[in-house]
Structure formats: structure tokens, C-alpha cells
Specification:
By secondary structure, this protein is of the alpha+beta class. It has a single domain, classed as Glutaredoxin. Helix 2 runs parallel beside helix 7.
């Protein structure tokens, strides 16, 4: 092989690697989701985000759970509102990172006053730890506690919508059906998509 031919093949290989890198960059979680979601069914390439059109949603979710303050919250009392359910625990680094973004969305939608409710689900801690986390990270929406065999929220979403990682965020529509699932941290880009999904669900008729 001549030196010129060898250099040519190296150049081609290098360009191929650059092209592959750009392709991967174009499929990043934030840009890929924001560029592809148009209001209907959507599943990200890595399966980390799934958005379900109204006609394709499953049966309503049913649950009754206890919050960190000792009160109860149920799917029945939340029916008619859009509900954002976030599974997390206090020592989870991505959960800590996303907390202010979720709180910002909660306040954006009126902190429950505009028909959008947020519900945190602590899967690992007792009430004092969950309350301390909320105080430290400015989380003002209710948090339920899953302990041992008492895990009503995990049971409610078991099966098709079981949280596959921590954190996991689910959007439940006005009829109590899962409209979207976000696996992993809600990044800045994903927070924008989550806001769109919430608004779309809010705009849907409940009847």
C-alpha cells in the first residue's frame, strides 16, 4: 500500500468517526425529545421517555397513600386534575438535581390552583428524612412515603408503567390515566417537554 493511499484511508476513517459523534450528539436526550414530540405518541430512542396519545392510554390508576405529614391522598380526590407523580429518594443525586426544576414547574402551574397537582413518592426514607429533603431543596408539593410492604404508589403503577429507575416521573391525565413517563433525571431540556405534556393534558377534556 502506498503512503498516499494509507493517509487517504486514515482520513476517511477519521471523518467517519466525526460523523458518528455528531449523530450521537444529535440524539441526546434533551434535543431528541424536544425535536420529536408533536403532541401524539412518542418514545425516545433509548426508551427513557414515553408520551402516550389520549386514544392509546390504559385504564385509570387507583391509589390511596399517606403523606410525610400524616394526611392521606387518593386518586379519587385528584380525579379531574392533571397529576405529576415523581418517584425519588433523598440520597439519589439525580433526584436532588431535578428537585428545583420540578418545583419550578409546580409553581408555574399555580401550585395546584390551576388544575395541576404534583405528588412526590419517597421510595426509601421515613417521613422525617423526606420532610428534611423537602425543606432543604424547596419542595412544597406533598410527598408520600413507601415503606416495606406498604407501597401503594408502586403497586398502583406496577406493570406497564412500573418505575424502571430512580427518579421516574409520570404524568396522569384528568381521567386518571398515565399520559407520559420520564425515566431518569428531569434535565433542563426535559423540563421543557414535561411542561408541554402537562399543558396538553390540562387542555384535554375530562369528560
Amino acid at each position: 500500500m502506498s503512503a498516499r493511499a494509507g493517509r487517504g484511508r486514515i482520513a476517511v476513517a477519521a471523518l467517519s468517526l466525526v460523523a458518528a459523534s455528531l449523530a450521537l450528539a444529535g440524539c441526546s436526550s434533551g434535543d431528541g425529545i424536544a425535536g420529536s414530540y408533536t403532541g401524539g405518541d412518542y418514545t425516545s430512542g433509548d426508551g427513557s421517555t414515553r408520551i402516550i396519545a389520549p386514544a392509546n392510554r390504559s385504564d385509570p390508576i387507583a391509589f390511596t397513600a399517606t403523606t410525610a405529614t400524616g394526611s392521606t391522598v387518593s386518586s379519587k380526590e385528584l380525579r379531574g386534575d392533571v397529576v405529576v407523580v415523581n418517584f425519588w429518594y433523598a440520597q439519589c443525586a439525580p433526584c436532588i438535581a431535578e428537585a428545583p426544576r420540578l418545583e419550578k414547574l409546580y409553581t408555574h402551574f399555580g401550585s395546584g390552583a390551576k388544575g395541576v397537582q404534583f405528588l412526590g413518592v419517597d421510595i426509601n426514607d421515613l417521613a422525617p428524612q423526606a420532610t428534611a429533603f423537602a425543606k432543604a431543596h424547596g419542595v412544597s408539593y406533598p410527598i408520600t412515603i413507601e415503606t416495606g410492604n406498604n407501597a401503594p404508589m408502586a403497586a398502583a403503577f406496577a406493570g406497564r408503567f412500573s418505575p424502571r429507575t430512580t427518579p421516574t416521573t409520570l404524568v396522569v391525565d384528568r381521567k386518571g390515566r398515565v399520559a407520559a413517563r420520564f425515566d431518569g433525571e428531569i434535565t433542563t431540556d426535559q423540563a421543557s417537554v414535561l411542561r408541554e405534556v402537562i399543558q396538553d393534558a390540562l387542555n384535554e377534556r375530562s369528560s
